[in-house]
């Protein structure tokens, strides 16, 4: 089986945008699973994404108590043979690969957010680190972003950074 993924983080609705961009909603309609790495800000964003696809998400440092009650700090799931973990924060970029190898030794892909800066690297131990950036708050980036990917038969394929 193949699972099409939409990977987002740091949506910050309604503080950075009034609503999710239409491109994110359209992408959610085209996938099997949405992975969200926290900082939703309001539960209605979770509800909206759940109305389009299944959601695997975590809470972030800006999320209120009602979201924290619905979501874990760290989520783990095997998706078509690929072992995923999702967390909001991983700390500073310097030393990230070594820290995440130690923290997630049994994971193939770690999705994280917080910085609003897209990231795609592989650690010395082979852990794939993915940060989709933010679809609503580009900060120091040229554009807002999210990721799409496919999990299939134990491999993560077709990882693409989408610029809005």
From TrEMBL:
InterPro entries: Calcineurin-like_PHP_lpxH, Metallo-depent_PP-like, Phosphodiesterase_MJ0936/Vps29. Its EC number is 3.1.4.-. Belongs to the metallophosphoesterase superfamily. YfcE family. One of its GO terms (molecular function) is hydrolase activity. This is Phosphoesterase. It is an enzyme of class 3 (hydrolase). Keywords: Metal-binding. Residues 4-150 form the Calcineurin-like phosphoesterase domain. Its cofactor is a divalent metal cation. The keyword Metal-binding applies. The keyword Metal-binding applies. PANTHER family: VACUOLAR SORTING PROTEIN VPS29.
């Amino acid at each position: 089986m193949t699972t099409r993924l939409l990977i987002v983080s740091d949506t910050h609705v309604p503080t950075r945008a009034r609503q999710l961009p239409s491109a994110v909603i359209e992408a959610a309609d085209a996938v099997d699973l949405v992975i969200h790495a926290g900082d939703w800000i309001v539960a209605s964003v979770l509800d909206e994404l759940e109305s389009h696809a299944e959601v695997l998400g975590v809470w972030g440092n800006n999320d209120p108590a009602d979201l924290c009650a619905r979501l874990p700090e760290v989520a783990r799931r095997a998706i078509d043979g690929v072992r995923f973990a999702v967390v909001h924060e991983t700390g500073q970029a310097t030393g990230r690969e070594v820290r995440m190898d130690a923290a997630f030794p049994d994971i193939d892909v770690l999705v994280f957010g917080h910085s609003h800066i897209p990231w795609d690297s592989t650690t010395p131990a082979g852990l794939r680190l993915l940060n989709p950036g933010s679809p609503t708050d580009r900060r120091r980036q040229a554009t807002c972003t999210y990721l799409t990917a496919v999990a299939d038969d134990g491999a993560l394929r077709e990882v693409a950074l989408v610029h809005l």
